[in-house]
Amino acid sequence: MSADHPPLRLLTLYDDVMNVYADRGNTIAVHARARARGLGIHATAASLGDPLPSAADLVLIGGGQDREQWRIADELAGHGDQLRAWADEGVAMLAVCGGFQLFGRWYRDSAGAELPGAGVFDVTTVAPGPGWPRCIGDVIAHSAVDAVGELVGFENHGGRTYLGAGARPFAMVEYGRGNNGEDGTEGAIRDRAIGTYLHGSLLPKNPALLDYLLAGALSHRTESEVRLEPLPAGYAERAHAAAAAVARSRAPRFERPTRPAV
Ligand code: GLN
To answer: Is 262 inside a domain boundary?
Structure first.
């Protein structure tokens, strides 16, 4: 397929800072899946002090603890105009956990201090004070995107994210807690930009999502609607099934609270 398509422009943001729970595995999965499909990748890593490239087809950012988020928040928020413009023109994006929070409008951390967001997603996040439980454990969720289907991953966040009027949930939770443990939503989606709480790493064991992001990136790169042929089921599908079985055996099924959490 590489003879038909120019190389995809992959941009990883702050992957030397925002890599809690090995979210860099998502970047590895993108390279591996692109190679399996004969797709070329032109990769750029932008971190603290680096300018953004002039164009991108797929943007990845991982998660991070509050102190890592404090290191990047102001600069990332400063990139907000460019990131929102890319989201508007159909650049594929995957922002995980702390990266997802900072792709929202703001994040109020566990000390009550507010970090600015890039404003890609109309979401806000509040970390409850000390004594409140973190959302930790396996997650099974079902995506609003038919081609993506079931998602399996792992969450570990104190922040509770709430969708604004302009945001759509990326998925609905079956097992685990998701955005806030109250409304059953997981992540957010805006055009081809996706935010999620799912670590794992997420992409190696969710091949349908990985292909959805690659197809979106390729569609943006070629200014056409590209559909990718399914690949024969293999290790990724077996990893997904194994992780889903573990999640079903030990994660709490999501139950909408009968009273407000706060
Ligand atoms: N620091 C954020 C929180 O606790 C994000 C954590 C993460 O990226 N795993 O909610």
So the answer is: no
pLDDT of residue 1 exceeding 50, the answer is no
Residue 22 lies in a domain: yes
Q: What CA–CA distance (Å, rounded) separates 100 from 161?
A: 9
- pLDDT (tens digit, 9 = 90+) per residue, 13-50? 999 999 988 899 999 999 999 999 999 999 999 999 99
Q: Cα of 184 to ligand 1 centre, how many Å?
A: 18
Q: Is residue 198 part of a domain?
A: yes
* Per-position DSSP letters for 224-262, written without gaps between them: S---PPPPPP-HHHHHHHHHHHHHHHHSPBP---SS---
* Residue range 73-92: mean pLDDT, rounded: 98
Closest CA to 80 of 106, 57, 98, 62: 106
Average pLDDT over residues 155-173: 97
Range of the domain at 203: 8-250
> Looking up tokens 């070629």, which residue turns up?
222
CA of 252 relative to ligand 1 center, distance in Å: 20
Residues with CB under 6 Å of ligand 1 are 20, 63-66, 69, 97-98, 101, 127, 156-159
Q: How many structural domains compose the chain?
A: 1
Instruction: Residue 79: give its domain's CATH number.
Output: 3.40.50.880
Residue 259's pLDDT band, with cuts at 50, 70 and 90, is low
- Domain-located, residue 15: yes
Instruction: Ligand 1 pocket test: pick from 17, 18, 66 the residue with the most ligand atoms within 8 Å of its Cβ.
Output: 66
Report the share of the chain in percent with pLDDT over 70. Answer: 97
Please report the atom of ligand 1 found closest to the CA of residue 125.
Answer: 10
CA of 148 to the centre of ligand 1 (A): 24
